[in-house]
Amino acid sequence: MAERINTDILVIGGSLAGMAAAITAKEADPETEVTVVEKYTAGYAGKANKGAGIMTMLGDAKPEDYVAYHTKYIGDYLNDQEAQLQYAENLNRGVELLDKWSGGKIDKKEDGSFKTLKWLAQVQGKDENGQFIFDEPDHFPWTLVAIDLDFMVNVRKYAQKAGIRFVDRTGVVDLLLAEGKISGAVAYNIDDGSQTVFQAKAVVLATGSQNYRIMPMWSPGRGEGLAAAFRAGAKFRNCEFGSFYNWISLQNFESSMGVEFALYNDKGENVGLAHTQGEHPDVDQNSLAEWYKQTVAGNGPMHYRQQENPLMPYLMTTLACDDYFHRPFADTFWGSLFFNAYSQQTSDEIVPGLIGEFSGLMVDKDMKTTLDGLFAAGDICYGGSAAAGAVPPPPGRVRGSGLAFAQNSGCIAGRSVSDYVKNAPVCTFDEGDVAKIDERFMKPIKQGGSVKVMDFLPKIHRVMQPLENSLYRKEERLLAALTEIEKLQAELETLKAESAHDLFGCNEIQSMLLCAKLFFTTSLHRKESRGWFLREDYPDHSKELTWYTATPTGEGTDFVVAPMKLPIDRYPNKEAE
């Protein structure tokens, strides 16, 4: 017999965005019942506690300056500037709240103020206490704080103390609708496969982005929430920007930052440095495309001369050591990772590795999706919010924006959903819909397939990973990639499942293929190069600033792509003609 849980607000996803939404909603009205359901264990799951632990903060900069810089040099005028201004205005407050929820886990100076450091700061020496002194660039209108990587455990404790209910090791696979609005969700225990049906006045999706399980550090992003929203009928936006790459070594699959400063072809020519001139806030699309061009021209393999990377002093004093930031847990984590990854590395060959960050669920400034009763927060909707513009967020060429947007959007979603449920009725869903979801999820056990998930997965990787498919795009390659994805969708009936874990793996495969189809299809519609989006056959900007949306038709994985003009007349920063 399936367990039934009734709650006012259901938050799906127990990493930072979900926690921020749950805490904000609960503190807005302590009488509201808030439940967080997490596929693994809330406080440990997700990506928030597995990265560098740096977070964007505005500091003394003006929000308007942040928007102007980001729009011109990063988002390439495809930003929703109103949404981004709201984001910038909340950055400092977001840091303060996260420090409060985590029990003071953000590093501070002796006077209690936050210790900050701007990206690309250069070491100038040491002070009388042996602490590094940096020459910080003043042209970036933001700064960074650092948080220890065990912070999410404390955030969970804070949420529990506030009265938030947690349901762990239970993965939501689909949403329920009643009377035209979201009314709950169907989930299964990842260990024994038992079903739980949630009934709620409103739902917040905070399940992360789609990263296709290619790079190990970002593998938690598997897109099930994106697929669930699609099947429920939610609209998507900016799907074509879900193609974040970073530099990696094939010997360890760990990312390296700043490679473009010291990227050499096999002839000994530095071919990356030219792409770092002018404003260069982070890894850029053109240096990655240069890797492809050099390789095709026969000048590969490509090499990374780490000793020439001007970021190394910065990185070596902020990660895996306490020379500047004091973060014992993070230093141990990164120290072990660096040792395991680099101590036995024998080659300087470097390649682009696809991380993905497909985050196209469309939301407005209040984090409302296009479905009544459904809100979203964090990586699942970062691209779909359009705040970041023509880049794959996070990081969207601003390191620390992943934590910042998760915190920021979670708080906004929490306030919005709290207001929504005050007048929202409880809608009773059709039990037949629960049965249909159960049939879809359980199908791989019954269909008699023979292919295991881990044997199917490389087929997706072979389509998504090539840079010429997912970053430096061209119509013939996009069409070929889309054809391969549709062929793989036709092969889903070959998947084999023997356990609950297998069933979730099959659900993830379906989600990956759906996101890939959205990605390649919308990429074909954008016939220009803008920001991170590059088309070999359309190297210039188009004349009109356009977002592209994808609306499900209700027939399988079919959808309709349509242009959506930006309200550029309302925005202060405009592209020069």
TrEMBL record:
Superkingdom of the organism of origin: Bacteria
Domain FAD-dependent oxidoreductase 2 FAD-binding: 8-239
Coiled-coil features, chain-numbered ranges: 471-498
GO-annotated molecular function: electron transfer activity; flavin adenine dinucleotide binding; steroid dehydrogenase activity, acting on the CH-CH group of donors; succinate dehydrogenase activity
Gene Ontology BP terms: anaerobic respiration
SUPFAM superfamilies (alphabetical): FAD/NAD(P)-binding domain, Succinate dehydrogenase/fumarate reductase flavoprotein C-terminal domain
PANTHER family: SUCCINATE DEHYDROGENASE 2 FLAVOPROTEIN SUBUNIT (PTHR11632), SUCCINATE DEHYDROGENASE [UBIQUINONE] FLAVOPROTEIN SUBUNIT, MITOCHONDRIAL (PTHR11632:SF51)
Name assigned to this protein: FAD-dependent oxidoreductase
Organism: Emergencia timonensis
